[in-house]
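User: I'm preparing a small set of examples for a lab meeting where we compare how different chains pack in three dimensions. I only have the primary sequence for this one, and I'd like the structure in token form so I can line it up with the others. Please keep the answer compact; I'll paste it straight into my notes.
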Amino acid sequence: MTVERGVWLDEFITIAWTTPGTSPREFLHLMITRDLHPILHYGMVYLLQAAGVTDIALLRSINLLGLPLVIFAVAYGFRLKLINLSQALIVWVLFASSPIFFEYFAELRSYFLLYAASIATSILWYVLMRQIDAGQNVSATTISIWGACLAIFVNLHYFATILGGMLTAVLLMRLAIRGLWSKLLVIAVVSLVAAAPALVLGALQEVSTPKGLMSWIKTSPIESIKMSVRMVEGAAARNLAAVACAVVTCLFILEDWRKWVELRTPVILLGVIALFLGALVLANAVTPLIWDRYLIAGAGAVTFAVAILAASSGAPVWLPAAASAIALLLQAQTLRSNLGIDERGWLLSASAVAQLNSECPTTKIFAYPAYNHTSGLNDNDISIGLKMNPISYGYYAKKFQFSYEDLRPGATIAASGPCPSVIWIEHVSPIFAANPNVDTEQVLNEFQISKIGVAEMKRYGLGVVIVVRE
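Assistant: Understood. Below is the structure token output for the 470-residue chain.
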């Protein structure tokens, strides 16, 4: 899980859209016409690269910002005596031992920050709901912190924009029921301002991005349900002690009205998450849009709700120790099972190309841009692909000290002399997902490449290396 692990396509896209020398106008143009994500994470990377920070490990370290965000939100809830010490500890234990933490901490995408912001936003939502229910004055400070957390959250991913809107709607409904119209207006305005960048950019992207940009998502209705279940499992960190105590608490709520009054807020939060996931699953049945990492938007809310329910009043005194012990065991197991995670990305195929080059130094290497589709490529697609090549293939070519040539659709590759010609194509997994037994000729035809000679193909991770010999 180190920040030096292999880089993959979406990380290269992040770097390419924000590379030094990209003007603010060009950056915004790329965001509007070639992407379907809010601007916050890209914007941070853009500013860092503009300041001269271009090393992938340093850029990935942006994710460190998620740690103080969670700590601050937990500490604020504890300071207001709305979260007890055991609950605060369980929130942190679940967060720090979640598979989501280990999987996404060392990745130059928004998903780790999305998880952290989901927890922070859920905590501030909980604080506001508890204060409203108790008839306490909701301070300007709390509303401001809510606005800041919400702004971070909803501008990291559009699934978060949806969930943030749902949480805001519940808040406003609660204020309306209590007749707190002035507070309702203030929170509505603050929340709208927080979400404005995502709403405006999303509308522009909807009318400006090419149709079919997300057509690679093929999630079936059944698989969308499975992904939702896996998200909940990961958010609960598979922590048997915490989950068992949370379930027992829910059973007590069913038979004791006093428990419901005390704990209805985290139960409502889980209800919002259930509605959020249910709506996405239904929408996915019409147009596939769910991907496992996108659901992380709801993971922080699950983590927080489980912690609050598990460590509520009357919870066993041994719970924090038991949850912490289980977390340590799961962390050790996760670290052990993820020992090979640094080999992900394009590292496997790049290593294979470097090995071929070292065996025969006059080997010609051709790199085909990693498009998100292979048919109907237009001049703009090709231009964007070639813009990506120096960032993606160039990264590994520099790492392993070999040179390559860009490969365009319609090219013919021939071996000349004793050394082969190598065709390096990354991110071809959709082709193999459609047909696991696809052969060399079919792959070449798919990418509109001709060859003269004998070709042999090998798969490495998500990519292929095709060696053409005389």
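A couple of notes for your slides: Residues 346-469 form one domain. The two ends are 42 Å apart (CA to CA).

User: Perfect, thanks.
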